[in-house]
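LAB NOTEBOOK - FOLDING QUEUE
OPERATOR: T.R.
BATCH SIZE: 2
PURPOSE: Compare the predicted structure-token outputs for two unrelated chains run back to back under identical settings.
PRIORITY: normal
REVIEWER: second-year student, initials M.K.

ITEM 1
FIELD SEQUENCE / FIELD STRUCTURE:
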Amino acid sequence: MLIDGDKMLSTILGGISIGCWIVVYSPQILENYQLQSGEGLSVFFVIIWLLGDLCNLGGALLAGLLPTVIILALYYSICDIILLIQIYYYRWARSLRTEPNSITAERDTEETPLLVGSTPECTHETGSQRLLKLYAPYAAAVLFVIASGVFSWWISLRSGNGKGAPQSPSELETSEWTIQLIGWSSAVLYLGSRIPQIFKNFKTKCEGLSPALFLFAIAGNVTYALSICAASMEREYLVRNGSWLAGSALTVFLDIFVLCQFFYYRSSGSRESEEILGGES
């Protein structure tokens, strides 16, 4: 069954957004595993993000949404919990490796890098092999996101426009209030989660933080907002979805700020390295 172009575009953008949110956690989980540390993340950032995801999960359950929506909300919450487990597990593991000797402890404090595993190791990999190892996971994630959009388009061509059983006016009013409450609560939580991470970055200079986490978050929020706008530009519809639009837009702004922090500290570190090498020569 054919569907109109606006609905198809909205579905494709929605599929891409879901793809972004499925892979958004993977780069940071991988980064933590490689460094054997989760200190690049703010604990409050992850906890508040988890509260936002739990809010979405509760809303999906209360509203009786499709099982796929509930599963996705549960998946997001599980990924948040995995990040928290990584942070505290690597802290615990590092404490076990710390010797009680005061001299050793002092040397660790002054000389040990902020993040375990950040010390370069001698390898026999070529430049192309290192690049492949570094970017292959991200390339796979991007391909998955694109495939999500294509799959959504394919599903749209074969889906009908059937509607569920109509609700009574009282049910509609109750569900509308519930949706708005959940929407604005999630928006505030997602927005607030970035603040502690931004302050954390000033201290850690974004060490141990994967920029792909925020790149995919930006892509997910942008495509999600566009999918809402593509579905309809009627005032009533936009007002009803105002919490998600506002939350997505403001979160994108803060995520861009985090990326600016990341690239600023990376460029500053590169300049310092060049100055040191220039002084030695």
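ITEM 2
FIELD SEQUENCE / FIELD STRUCTURE:
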Amino acid sequence: MDKIKILWVDDEIDLLKPHILFLEKKNYSVTTCNNGLDAIALFEEDNFDIVFLDENMPGMSGLETLSEMKEKKSAIPMIMITKSEEEYIMEEAIGSKIADYLIKPVNPNQILLSLKKNLDDSRLITEKTTLDYQKEFRKISMELAMVNSYEDWVELYKKLLFWELKLEDINDTAMIEILESQKVEANSQFGKYIERNYEDWFAPKADKPIQSHNLFKELVVPELKKKDKPVLFVVIDNLRYDQWKSFETVISNYYKLEKEVPYFSILPTATQYARNAIFSGLLPIEMEKQFPQYWKNDVEDGGKNLYEAEFLSAQLKRLGLNLKEDYFKITNYAGGKKLAENFRALKENDLVTVVYNFVDMLSHAKTEMEVVKELASDDKAYRSLTLSWFKNSPLLEIIQQAQLLGFKLILTTDHGTINVKNPSKVVGDKNTSLNLRYKTGRSLTYEQKDVYVVKEPKTIGLPAINMSSSFIFAKNDFFLAYVNNYNHYVSYYKNTYQHGGISLEEMIIPFLVFNPK
């Protein structure tokens, strides 16, 4: 293995001889220099792995030398060493993206630690993360065998996500494959848990999680009643928990997270059911009865989410809340940009509700567009694409405007989505719904082991298309493919993101409350 090559620049380099000998004994190669101009020449001629740079040198200062070097080879880590503790020097150095900042006098072990931190950091982190996950693997496996409540499932899912994101950072393929197998097993067990318990959640005094239809009343209304700040309530359609985690740090630049409450989407985990339930505060069967002019079943023509503003107004009235409020649904860049530019006009509102549809469109585009299939080939890529969108989206501009105006931010979603990989055959008549993760209709034929069957939809708060209609919900990563033209269905929809069924990714979703910084 080649020695790590260090360039050390200091006008008193002779006084650092003991440090240099120490590093050479540790098998580092050290080239020394006592001024900025010579250092830049050496830096250009050779391929150094790291630079130690004194700030206070005659002639060209350390900061000036740093700036020149960064222009030539920005990726090389540079450690600033100085006698000065003046804040402006630290700020300038940090602004120039130094890798570390050491105050003289430094001892050899400080230098060695800085080297390891900056050059050996990824290997050390990889080894520790891998070792930690190997220990955690056994614990997660044991928990999977014992998990028996919705609270346990939330904690287990968050733990799996934590390790997924940690292992993604170190890019350990073997460990990621092991984790993926744990996620598959977790979803298998979760499907069985939902099958056993979901119907019970609709009993009057059942121990149950917060779900779509009581989310607003249980979690949003208490924030509105505080009346300490106006509220921006953002619902990003089809946002998974891991996608939220991907842009958490971006929001943290403007807002401080005060509350994180995972909640459960109702079934089907589809927009017309889950999001309408959020805004109406009602189960789908209640919406059909109380608002027949707004509700449409799966097989009816027309938009299924056209009346969210009306549902929200009715819910606010029912809850006795007299608020100055506005509702916006954003389905394209121009609409988002317009709201961002005009957000200041809403500063006197008590509530501003924004439904943002981009992530759902991204999910559908992965099915229909080859370029998106390439860009979002797996969960890691899907998260990365979501982060890239969010950082450059009008939604972030809206959030920035809200922060400047002192709005509290509430962010949530209606359901998540899952990458479907395994087809499951289904047969239905011409009036059967089209969704790939659930079906409703008469005389359905299906693979029993792959689905959760609900013969009486009213028992889980769903309307029936007709007297003999039932629902089936795909579990795990199955998607429902018709026997007719089966091979086409399988090749077209395999490895696409779908929603409507039962999985941790679709059902356990984030509800977040932030205060402006």
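REVIEWER COMMENT (ITEM 2): The mean pLDDT is 89.
FOLLOW-UP: none requested
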